[in-house]
């Protein structure tokens, strides 16, 4: 596995599950969860910007090769790893993906170390809904959903599914009703997102903040980066995580 220059590599284990992590920076904690195919140069660049704003950033390495470019080989490798792992749910509805349990533990550990109102979390694409799943059972104060795309939107029902069990959805709604806001980013005609933003509006009301851009592109923070999207996320973290 490749190291990322300037980042401290470690491992985190919860309930017998271990994943590598990369850490950099000082200040309130933010967990940056990479998209498919992994911690690409674009994901790394975004994480560096979060560090530069004054945050301790932890990037879990869940699949792929760190710092590999987006291409057919890296996409195929990530797809193989996801398909054989029981931690990731691709098609199931009304179910919280098992890896969310590990991510929640990581967030609790980081919050216990750093203190403050909570931890920020951003998921992207396949992992876009993970930040919402973490909110259900962890000290998440600034959840960001960048083009949430799982479970894959191959039917109308799946396109509106939030990747949460009914109990976790209730827990999320309780926290949102108490004042926690959720930031969502997408291109308005991105078919991978399906009807999830409409569902999020229905379930979370005015505390779901939707930032939408025209077009059919996908990766708002990385490959198809919108500067406004990055700026909104940084401002969200700065506002919500200040001690």
From TrEMBL:
Keywords, A to Z, come to: Hydrolase
The molecular function terms of the Gene Ontology recorded here are:
hydrolase activity
Q: Give the span(s) annotated as Disordered.
A: 1-24
Q: Where are the transmembrane segments?
A: none
| Highest taxon in the source lineage | Bacteria
Task: Report domain Dienelactone hydrolase positions.
Answer: 26-146
Which Gene3D superfamilies does UniProt cross-reference here?
Answer: alpha/beta hydrolase
Q: Does the keyword Hydrolase apply?
A: yes
The record's InterPro entries line, in alphabetical order, gives: AB_hydrolase_fold (IPR029058), Dienelactn_hydro (IPR002925), Dienelactone_hydrolase-like (IPR051049)
PANTHER family for the chain: ALPHA_BETA-HYDROLASES SUPERFAMILY PROTEIN, CARBOXYMETHYLENEBUTENOLIDASE-RELATED
Q: What is this protein called?
A: Dienelactone hydrolase family protein
Organism encoding this protein: Nocardioides bizhenqiangii
